[in-house]
Write a structure and sequence with these properties.
- The protein is built from nine helices and four strands.
- With 223 residues, the protein is α+β, with helices and mostly antiparallel strands.
- It folds into two domains: 79 residues, Glutaredoxin, CATH 3.40.30; 121 residues, Glutathione S-transferase Yfyf (Class Pi), Chain A, domain 2, CATH 1.20.1050.10.
- The chain has a four-stranded mixed β-sheet, with no helix packed on it.
- The radius of gyration is 18 Å and the shape is globular.
- Belongs to the GST superfamily.
- Pfam families: GST_C (PF00043), GST_N (PF02798).
- This is Glutathione S-transferase rho.
- InterPro entries: Glutathione-S-Trfase_C-like, Glutathione-S-Trfase_C_sf, Glutathione_S-Trfase, Glutathione_S-Trfase_N, GST_C, Thioredoxin-like_sf.
Length: 223
């Protein structure tokens, strides 16, 4: 089965990492994969464009099906391989509702995180405005307080005791933020969540190699 799958990916990309975690959870190891370099602009190569005309990673093919959106790929894999590996959509309506809520709510978390990291790193210093920097920081702080509250109410995962599709999709964002210096002291529930899942076999096996080579960053240290 896995031999009929191809993943073109980039290290440190949350969407790529999600699909890798999902493939591990569904016991679909042994797929064809290729690590490409964002720095060398390999995501704009013809090989990628043939699968993903947006010139973005991931580019994922499962049999004859191309799924380049990580949410779509993860849903597809869960539905196609329901009886294989770990079941990631719970039966309980309560847990299922919470899972769906958290996984889609994560788009807001991601956008606010990107506003801080990319504004600080990608916008030239002379074009940055202190008021915008402050506004972005305040928005992310308020968002993180929400997630801190959510995780104080659940046992260990986003939708309760069980690891679900919400964790596959959201954990890479949380890991990304701690990699960029998020404070464990200020966000203890998020830190507990991060530390309890980082050694899960599917996550450990797919940890971004780029992060292993470079020290953690400090873009989110003051959040």
């Amino acid at each position: 089965m896995a031999k009929d799958m191809t993943l073109l990916w980039g290290s440190g990309s949350a969407p790529c990492w999600r699909i890798q975690i999902m493939l591990e959870e569904k016991k679909l190891q042994g797929y064809n994969q290729k690590l490409l370099s964002f720095e060398k602009m390999e995501h704009k190569s013809q090989e990628v464009l043939d699968m993903n005309p947006r010139g973005q990673l991931p580019a994922f093919k499962c049999g004859n099906h191309i799924l380049n959106e990580s949410y779509a790929a993860c849903f597809f894999l869960e539905n196609q391989y329901k009886s294989q590996g770990n079941k990631l959509i719970p039966d309980s309506p309560d847990a299922q509702a919470l899972m769906y809520q958290r996984m889609f709510e994560a788009f807001t978390l991601s956008q606010k995180m990107v506003d801080v990291v990319y504004y600080n790193y990608k916008v030239p210093e002379e074009e940055r405005h202190d008021s915008a920097v402050q506004r972005n920081k305040e928005a992310l702080t308020a968002e993180l307080k929400l997630w801190e509250g959510y995780l104080k109410k659940t046992d260990c995962c986003l939708a309760g005791k069980e690891f679900t599709l919400a964790d596959v999709l959201v954990f890479p964002y949380i890991a990304y933020m701690f990699h960029y210096g998020l404070s464990s002291e200020r966000y203890p529930a998020l830190a507990k969540y991060y530390n309890s899942l980082k050694d899960r076999p599917s996550i450990k096996a797919t940890w971004p190699p780029y992060w292993q080579k470079f020290a953690d960053q400090d873009a989110l240290k003051t959040i």
